[in-house]
């Protein structure tokens, strides 16, 4: 990937960009193998982007800087110095092109960027998300307060009128002066509050605060791989923990007649449930907005397969213990942190063996990657 910002030492977010893409994959495979030294990973060929890294990311998170006469998009470095960055080559087509439009509108409606040094101003971040297989955009403005909310509502109306591909505009309130990108309150400023993702014949709806993988080409292959495992092992009941908007659940439901997804975020569960009418599911599929640990404590039904897709911190001991009590034939672990995956497997390997491991290069040219590990109960 050709990146002016990396070459000029302006941005090093893609810290491996000075290496060939093939070399970055080998480095990730090596790291994973070292973390699982002494275990046979049954490592499949890694799934990557090869020469398609440009325009692969469907989300842009940009900090704001400037005043009423000059607004800039970019990021803050580790010393809290602002660096302008408005043409990242990773962003999907359309995201960078929208920035000049937003800049003009923000100045027109006098929505002033927040100053870290002076602790003044309103707009802290802009977060853009583009739907997969569609051109719909979701635009979020992170504000310090409601001072500019009325002006932002008028600006949102202008945006969706002039640019119909902008489907959702929201204001997120983050009043505190600290390094937290967004707050708890989200105010939808448009008639629509979701955009639609499509992966072949699977449809997923995404709300403003819903988690979703940032590289959809890789994400679709990740979900499909888990779905194939469910089909291959003829799973009849499937539990999807930390299910988000239901991606793994809907891919599993292609062959599994009984699917349940559990996720703490109520917004994500609303999105998962709203996708039911869009997908052809012949069996039973349901979603519950519950804390995963509390849900497992009260679970009185056994599932043949349990999939976990936890945050970077991985699973805690209590969750692992309760999963093992379930004795599922299959455990499918989707991990964005190989270190916590290795740690968690050490608590499972006395009852489960690895039958398949695969790297999905969700974060090209960085040290991060997604791993899908499939474990089979040793007495299955």
Automatic annotation (TrEMBL):
Gene3D superfamilies: 2.40.50.1070, Vaccinia Virus protein VP39 (3.40.50.150)
Keywords, comma-separated and alphabetical: Methyltransferase, S-adenosyl-L-methionine, Transferase
Listed GO MF terms: methyltransferase activity
Residues binding S-adenosyl-L-methionine, per UniProt: 213, 242, 263, 309
Enzyme Commission code: 2.1.1.190
Keyword tRNA-binding among UniProt keywords: no
Catalytic machinery residues: 336 (nucleophile), 336
Pfam families on file: tRNA_U5-meth_tr (PF05958)
InterPro entries linked to this entry: MeTrfase_TrmA_AS, MeTrfase_TrmA_CS, SAM-dependent_MTases_sf, U5_MeTrfase_fam
GO BP term, pick one: methylation
Similarity-based family: Belongs to the class I-like SAM-binding methyltransferase superfamily. RNA M5U methyltransferase family.
Name of the featured protein: 23S rRNA (Uracil(1939)-C(5))-methyltransferase RlmD
Native source species: Bacteriovorax antarcticus
